[in-house]
């Protein structure tokens, strides 16, 4: 991911926030908080929060390895950990496996915890974002080698947040996709659901002709507030999202 790793994170960073990275095992988060809220103690607390988020998921996977491998909706027991049930439900609604929601679920868990300490917070996990904001913000869209890449952004208003902004691509990043979309971006108050639906929509896109189909699919899922799909120089969009030019 060398080139992508260095560039896509710039698309959501905000000048008024202090951004830093926290890594715990495979979890690599880019986090933005109000500058006055940042401290070494906050970073250490976030590390512990990530471990507390990961532990029940890791323990469950050790007991049920099929959960990790499933590419279609997977049923989990009623006494499964909360994060496991959240991922399974998101996968069920999107028609994909539960691990399609893992990055969004972790971003949401950690983001909601940090939001109790900073009124403005952005947590990005592999292109999946949790945002809570008190001001208008722009989130740029990276779509690989599409002519639209880094040319447009989503404008997010405070009343829309907490908000999940999740991206899937058949060309960029490590996540599994069976499609060829340059980017599919999905909005939802549930970051796990937005993550799973972005994967499902991305799987539908093989050519420009599939963009409308992918966006229509997202529009039918309760809890999804917007979807944007890009392939080459074509774009389709639906829902409550304001698309604006990206300042050069």
Structure characterization notes:
It is a single chain. This protein has helices at 2-7, 40-63, 65-69, 82-94, 102-114, 191-204, 211-219; strands at 17-24, 27-34, 121-125, 128-132, 137-140, 152-156, 163-168, 183-188, 224-231, 234-239, 242-245. Residues 1-6 have low confidence and may be disordered. With 248 residues, it is of the alpha+beta class. It has a single domain (2-245), classed as ApbE-like domains (T-fold). It has 7 helices and 11 strands. The strands form 2 sheets. It has an 8-stranded antiparallel beta sheet. Strands 5-6-11 form a 3-stranded antiparallel beta sheet, with no helix packed on it. Helix 6 (191-204) runs antiparallel to helix 7. The protein starts with a helix and ends with a strand. The chain is globular. It comes from Desulfosporosinus acidiphilus (strain DSM 22704 / JCM 16185 / SJ4). This is ApbE family lipoprotein. InterPro entries: ApbE-like_sf, UPF0280.
